[in-house]
Design brief:
alpha/beta, 4-stranded parallel β-sheet, 6 strands
């Protein structure tokens, strides 16, 4: 499945890798030297279907080199599980990514495509005996199904995701160090 193209006349995202990272980011590839700003985030940072995502616009407005470490459907886990992406930059902008796209005590997500549901834990199966988890490929579908089935039981998962997200964001921010700006996209 191709998720980064829109067809023959689609955008060229200039995919690239940095260092030993197994992750593929949106280009153009930049040298990680001197003063630069690093942008970590999900689909909005990557700029799917956008010719000039906000890191490129920031570079044009400030004149500072901006490196786009955006990943499609990324959660915090994508960056924490690949320490090669934590670089020393003058400033790092971190998009606040959704809590649903990270592994937790209830379910596991794909290590690179964090929107992909891999499996339910024993704890999840115990609380949701009435759910066939083999039906799910995506976290959002699984979570919305569980919410519709039992809003009360869903609250346990919501609380787990909130707590795990807070702990992992703190860990990520400590790993980054230096000056960090948090960016929240909201409607």
């Amino acid at each position: 499945m191709a998720y980064d193209t829109t067809g023959r006349s689609g955008l060229d995202y200039l995919p690239c890798r940095y260092g030993r990272s197994g992750l593929q980011f949106r280009g153009p590839r930049r040298r990680l030297a001197g003063d630069y700003a690093l942008f970590l985030g999900g689909t909005e940072t990557y700029g799917r279907f956008i010719a000039h995502p906000y890191p490129a616009l920031t570079e044009a407005a400030t004149g500072m080199t901006c490196v786009n470490f955006g990943l499609q459907n990324a959660g915090v886990d994508a960056f924490l599980n690949d320490p090669a992406v934590i670089e020393v930059a003058r400033v790092t902008v971190v998009q606040l990514m959704g809590a649903q796209n990270m592994s937790n005590r209830f379910y596991a997500v794909h290590p690179r495509r964090n929107d992909r549901f891999l499996k339910a834990s024993g704890l999840m199966r115990q609380f949701f005996r009435d759910v066939d988890f083999t039906e799910f490929a995506f976290n959002r579908h699984m979570l919305s199904t569980i919410h519709d089935l039992s809003p009360d039981r869903y609250q346990m998962i919501r609380e787990e995701l909130r707590d795990a997200w807070m702990a992992r964001m703190r860990h990520l921010l400590r790993a980054i160090g230096g000056r960090t700006i948090l960016l929240w996209f909201a409607g």
